[in-house]
Amino acid sequence: MAESMKGMHRTHRCAHLSLSNLHEQVTVMGWVQKSRNKGGIIFVDLRDRSGIIQIIFEGKNLSGEDFLKAERLRSEYVIAVTGTVEKRAGAANPNLSTGEIELIAGQIRILSESETPPFPIEEDSKTKEELRLKYRYLDLRRPDIQKNLIMRSQVATLVRQFLADEGFLEIETPILNKSTPEGARDYLVPSRVHPGNFYALPQSPQLFKQLLMVSGYDRYFQIAKCFRDEDLRADRQPEFTQIDMEMSFVDIDDVIEVNERLLQKVFKETIGVDVKLPIKRMTYAEAMERFGSDKPDTRFGMELNNVTNIVRDCNFGVFTGAIADGGSVRGINAKGQGGMSRKKIDALVEYAKGYGAKGLAYIQIADDGSIKSSFAKFISEEEMHRLIGAMDGENGDLLLFAADKNKVVFDVLSALRLHLADMMELTDKDTYEFLWVTEFPLFEWSEEQGRYVAMHHPFTMPMEEDLHLLDKEPGKVRAKAYDIILNGNEIGGGSVRIHQDDVQEKMFEKLGFSKEAAYDRFGFLLNAFKYGVPPHAGLAYGFDRLIMLMAKEDNIRNVIAFPKIKDASCLMTDAPNVVDDAQLEELGIELINKE
Ligand code: ASP
């Protein structure tokens, strides 16, 4: 039977009690973590979001009725207890912040009983994630998830404080919008009032934040929910949160400067990590050349070497064929891995194939300097010697080569580099390496669509020095776009925006939009740009991913209160789900069988 808490007031959270409260009378309320009856004396661990306090129920301190209640306690009962804080009679528990004290109960109320939970509420749960997500409200009681969500809240508060101090205004932008797909697929919401018409949920507040700059708000930010209907990967969520910002009368360095100080503050004040400023910068071209990736993990080396010129004239068809097709041959040196077994090397080859490689060529240099190579018989001794030299190969090293189109070579070697770093334990989660990647290409060629698409988005400003290439060689134009990388993860990105209509028109033309098509989709922005536009630029962080890295989690679901799973469904609410025929009729929607 549930009792009322009338007349009792919580004085402390459980783990906020300490030796400094000795002999004080206090009241705590929370969930029973566990209860042990040792004959006449009952030990209860009581939990709230702050942690755990040990409570002692002994007949001599309680009314008979209250002692009977204490005897009934089971895991996850919600209770209120008044008692006195005393030094532990038994040995202190070094694993608890309250390990030196205990609460001697004088009064108890059972506020709510609990069925046996489907899994234990404990740190490092061994329970399968599906079951935990079905009962997410119980999973959220676990201390590790609570820690993450508390940190998430702290970061949001710090971000708000910092940006407000820097003159940013927090302004909300609409969730029900016009569909302007360019990038990912939109989530659509049917309109009842306008049958046959649909709203789209925002993929980002991009256009609105630019309009706010046109309207003179100067500095905007928002912690914004965004929605993208993409084929889900393990670390993606259909709805996610951005820390989104935009600034007027600024260029790249201004955006970077504010954001470096923001990161420094947030990392220092939540996890005590010093971010050294200025954060290193690297151009996209350099990042690709050295790491094969536009979001390199710079916690370790193992950089790519371009050995195309050394093997150009060898007799190994795999190499020369790739070069003849306009590709390249590049390699990485897995230091100290020369003794790797054949089986493990075969597994690396299979791994590389998963990233598009047809195979992987290798040279194993044994500790005594003897060489085993998958292509030794096709190249001269001199070529082999030069190749090893170029790769900085020493006794005990394993050299791995990919030969293909550049894109494939980069994809394969960058993935392999991360995979090997994992195997070789070259990365640790206590190191935070930040990097700005700049000068991204403005466009990328889409094979699927047979046209250029914007690498960032269509409102990104080309670099002034490349403007003359827009017509002749659009693929070579670099953008005033930048990403902020942390340990090989893109945590944010942004750009300077186009604020001149002639450049914007040219941009749409290059993206294959007619003037009508551009106006049809983005007319409100293009029209706004006729009325005085400040130069502006901005950036958005993926808030979930940022918190995941700060919390040293591998799984983004562990930093989101109510996440969806890979197929975009919610195991707790069963969303998405069918709706009543009446609801559909009201919306003028008839379902077709999509099989
Ligand atoms: N809206 C962009 C994005 O979501 C970020 C930006 O350019 O500010 O990636």
Task: Describe what this molecule looks like in 3D.
The protein has 595 residues and is α+β, with helices and mostly antiparallel strands. Helix content is 29%, strand content 23%. The chain is built from 16 helices and 22 strands. The protein has helices spanning 64-72, 129-134, 136-139, 143-165, 206-214, 252-271, 284-291, 308-311, 317-324, 342-353, 381-390, 406-423, 501-510, 515-528, 543-550, 581-587, and strands at residues 25-37, 41-48, 51-58, 78-87, 101-112, 169-170, 188-190, 198-200, 219-227, 239-248, 281-283, 305-306, 328-334, 361-365, 371-373, 398-404, 434-438, 443-446, 451-454, 481-486, 489-496, 536-542. The strands form five sheets. The chain has an eight-stranded mixed β-sheet, sandwiched between helices. Strands 1-2-3-5-4 form a five-stranded mixed β-barrel. Helix 10 crosses helix 12. The longest helix has 23 residues, at 143-165. The two termini are 51 Å apart.
